[in-house]
Design goal:
By secondary structure, the chain is α/β, with parallel strands linked by helices. The chain folds into two domains: about 120 residues, NAD(P)-binding Rossmann-like Domain (Rossmann fold), CATH 3.40.50.720; about 190 residues, no CATH class. The chain has 14 helices and ten strands. The strands form two sheets. The chain has a six-stranded parallel beta sheet, sandwiched between helices. A four-stranded mixed beta sheet has the order 8-7-9-10. Helix 13 packs antiparallel against helix 14. The longest helix is centred in the last third of the chain and has 19 residues.
Length: about 350
């Protein structure tokens, strides 16, 4: 049984990864967290890792990077949120072991470097994001005996989005949205920043940049569609006109398990999908007046790595200000656009 190191074990995905690992009987080599000392202590007592690191302690960040590169685990799960996860992700990639990639920001801020490092060290990256896991699975299903679809055979990647809690709101209604309202996602349970990013659809935008690097496609080859039921997690359209989709109930434990067991599949924790009980699957185009972050992402993606990093950093700062109730919800894309405009001057 393969062993795991989990970077960011006290976050939402880290906790679910431990649940999946326990289900599969996978041993835990190392756990890291930033400042949730109590939960890390509980996890240590339950899973008995060889090493634990708290990043907020003196030397903790360097210790996390060291664990990422030297824990000896067969699979490193990189679930440290934000730009802080970049160095530890690069360290994990230098191991040549499988990296179950959770954190979007390394690919958003330094996609070319991340993929170059993976190629240099022959490291296998398996995406954990539900959308990118879905695309990864679709590309395998569509490849036949080749094992994996070549980029030139991909016509379009279709990223599905729930639309978050505000897809039917007007621009005027969004001005008074509170953090409490924005943190109530209709389908998924996620961390605060990711949930706010879902409400603005910046999260889907970051997934566009992530998909570009993971699957070697252009921004023009990626389409976002609103799919409120969150049953189809993404699709791939091939050059012959066929479309392959991956479907399941919205449960992050499924893509987590797939990243840990790939290329095999094992019985999981997600409840089976009964198609006869679905009321319907609907799709619609995103309203760019309500979700201007999507246009900002396409703009940054076409401009290059520096613009993508600027967009991500500005968004992190804007989301933090909104959660502190220092700016209204509608100012998040405004501040991001100002940062991109400043970069272009």
């Amino acid at each position: 049984m393969k062993s795991l190191t989990i970077l960011g074990s006290t976050g939402s995905i880290g906790q679910q990864t431990l649940e999946v690992a326990d289900h599969l009987g996978m041993p835990i080599i190392a756990l890291t967290a930033f400042n949730n000392k109590d939960l890390l202590r509980e996890q240590t007592a339950e899973f008995s890792p060889e090493t634990t690191v708290l990043g907020s302690e003196p030397g903790g960040i360097d210790a996390i990077i060291d664990v990422a590169e030297n824990s000896g685990a067969d699979i490193i799960v990189t679930a440290i949120a934000g730009e802080a996860g970049l160095e530890s992700t690069l360290a994990a990639l230098r191991t040549g072991k499988r990296v179950a990639l959770v954190n979007k920001e390394p690919l958003v801020c330094a996609g070319e470097l991340v993929m170059q490092t993976a190629r240099e060290f022959k490291t296998e990256i398996i995406p954990v994001d539900s959308e990118h896991s879905a695309i990864f699975q679709c590309l395998h299903c569509g490849a036949g005996q080749a094992g994996y679809t070549k980029p030139k055979q991909i016509k379009k990647i279709i990223l599905t989005a729930s639309g978050g809690p505000f897809r039917n709101k007007t621009q005027a209604e969004l001005k008074d949205i509170t953090p409490e309202q924005a943190l109530k996602h209709p389908n998924w349970t996620m961390g605060k920043v990711v949930t706010i990013n879902s409400a603005t659809m910046m999260n889907k935008g970051l997934e566009i940049i992530e998909a570009m690097h993971l699957f070697d496609v252009t921004p023009e080859q990626i389409e976002v569609v609103i799919h409120p039921q969150s049953i189809i997690h993404s699709m791939v359209e091939f050059i012959d006109g066929s479309i392959v989709a991956q479907m399941s109930h919205p449960d992050m434990r499924m893509p987590i398990q797939y990243a840990l067991t790939y290329p095999d599949r094992q019985p999981g924790l997600t409840r089976p999908l009964d198609l006869t009980k679905l009321s319907g699957l609907t799709f619609e185009k995103p309203n760019l007046d309500i979700f201007p972050c999507l246009n900002l992402v396409y703009r940054a993606a076409k401009a290059g790595t520096q613009a993508c990093a600027t967009l991500n950093r500005a968004n992190e700062e804007a989301v933090d200000l909104f959660l502190k109730e220092e700016i209204p919800f509608t100012d998040i894309p405004v501040l991001v656009e100002k940062a991109l405009n400043a970069l272009e001057k």
